[in-house]
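Researcher: Re-running this chain for the archive, since the previous output was lost when a drive failed. Same request as before.
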Amino acid sequence: MAENYVVRAGQSDVGLRSASTAHEALRDYLRGIGCRDEEIVRMGEDAAAWRGAIYRAVPATSEQLSHGLH
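Model: Regenerated structure tokens:
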């Protein structure tokens, strides 16, 4: 079952993805911005690093879904 996740880089919300896990949402987002699988450094179930930046995926709230990302 897919859930909606907000992808964050630092304090900024950078993406919104629907996926079955937080890691899947991160992988999908990072691939979408040009990252190859071998460049992704997994840092747990909900975090990954790419080129020095750390990305996290957290479940989206209904408010985030209705307003989109800013």
